[in-house]
Recover the amino acids of this structure.
């Protein structure tokens, strides 16, 4: 497997200009409606549907049916799991992956949910001490770590005898950007090529300042693809360009230009909300939007 640092940007790829098997963004909405979030899908300025998810999302009611429907629309055969990968493990990227894992992780033969983050980011001593306090204040988290034989490393980090890393603690459900909000354990991948090359749905959790660069690298891994993946961007920032005329560039445009994935396949999450509020099922409003 090639080392991602050895690759160089190339021309965008050319995919068929439509969602796979005529799937529409509204169909994607049926899957991404975890917890008590109100998700409203907008097509341009026209609202075409809404879902208010109930609090019973963890009991499996209706979830497997949603998953089966999406698998059928994407042409997934039995034994071939739907592959969803988050790219970037900031607060929003981690929460989105955790919500999906909480809801759909029980259907292991039908869906695979993973998240990519860069390796090597060390957790400083002050953060490790605070993390230890958070763990001990939550009985459910404490018991989970003990069952997973993972508690001792946090004790050692608290004492300064061990250095923790961001990808390591993310596997246990701790996002470095959001230590006080423990998530569920996540499947973490630190090799970008391994994470995205065969993904059916890619969730962009990168900031706008990094989106273009990372997706240019991803385009190398998608050269052999026949169909374009579906991309959902969580990035809320924008970038500016001066040539040929001054204009703003959105993360969805960056992804389209870097990879050649058609705009019809690229959705974005908008709305006034905070990642921790969404995860804690507090009142929040979020919209999944796509091109008209």
């Amino acid at each position: 497997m090639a080392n991602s640092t050895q690759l160089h940007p190339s021309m965008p790829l050319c995919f068929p200009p439509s969602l796979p098997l005529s799937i529409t963004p509204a169909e994607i909405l049926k899957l991404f409606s975890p917890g008590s979030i109100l998700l409203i899908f907008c097509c341009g300025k026209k609202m075409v549907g809404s879902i208010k998810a109930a609090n019973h999302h963890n009991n499996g009611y209706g979830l497997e049916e949603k998953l089966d429907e999406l698998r059928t629309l994407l042409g997934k055969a039995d034994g071939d799991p739907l592959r969803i990968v988050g790219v970037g493990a900031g607060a929003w990227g981690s929460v989105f992956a955790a919500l999906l894992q909480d809801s759909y992780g029980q259907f292991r033969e039908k869906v695979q949910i993973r998240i990519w983050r860069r390796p090597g980011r060390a957790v400083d001593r002050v953060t490790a001490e605070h993390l230890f306090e958070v763990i001990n204040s939550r009985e459910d988290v404490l018991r989970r770590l003990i069952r997973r034989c993972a508690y001792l490393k946090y004790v050692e980090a608290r004492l300064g005898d061990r250095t923790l890393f961001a990808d390591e603690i993310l596997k246990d459900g701790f996002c470095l950007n959001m230590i006080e909000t423990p998530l569920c354990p996540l499947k973490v991948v630190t090799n970008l090529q391994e994470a995205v090359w065969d993904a059916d749905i890619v969730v962009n959790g990168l900031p706008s300042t990094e989106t273009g660069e990372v997706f240019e690298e991803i385009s190398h891994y998608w050269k052999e693809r026949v169909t374009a993946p579906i991309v959902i961007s969580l990035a809320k920032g924008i970038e500016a360009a001066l040539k040929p005329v001054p204009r703003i560039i959105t993360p969805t445009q960056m992804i389209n230009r870097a990879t050649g994935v058609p705009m019809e396949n690229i959705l974005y999450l908008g709305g006034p909300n905070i990642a921790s509020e969404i995860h804690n099922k507090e009142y929040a409003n979020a919209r999944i939007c796509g091109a008209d």
